[in-house]
Amino acid sequence: MTATLRLAARADVPGMQRVRHAVKENRLVSRVIPDDEVIDAIERSGRGWVVEDGGEVVAFAIGNVVDGSIWALFVDPSHEGRGLGRRLHDVMVEWLHSRGLARLWLTTDPGTRAQRFYERAGWVDRGLQANGEHLYERHAD
Fold first, then answer.
1. What is the CATH number of the domain that holds 91?
2. CA dist 87 to 31, 43, 47, 130, Å?
3. Is the pTM for the entire model greater than 0.85?
């Protein structure tokens, strides 16, 4: 089957939550993000995208247009290594920059595949934060 990238909708939230909880790195252990927060993130404060394969959400990304943050970018472990994360990343970054945001930012745990992914995608490490995560920035070309 061919994976299809499209805008996220409310109906995708259960699939997005499933992917979020399936990942092996950057697992949320401090709290669960309620569905209404995800809906707010894709409808009010930003936009989300999903990749579907066989009618199932297998990856998703959410960008926050209010503050320029990358709210989420996750790929189901059984679909890693297919370029889905990079496709989502590129669409999200392009959209955020098209909304007039010159500076984008995110944080991620040190020593993770996510850290290496963002560095390969051109993000600049701005250092370790008080919470133990690295702050990354990306500026419009």
1. 3.40.630.30
2. 28, 21, 15, 31
3. yes
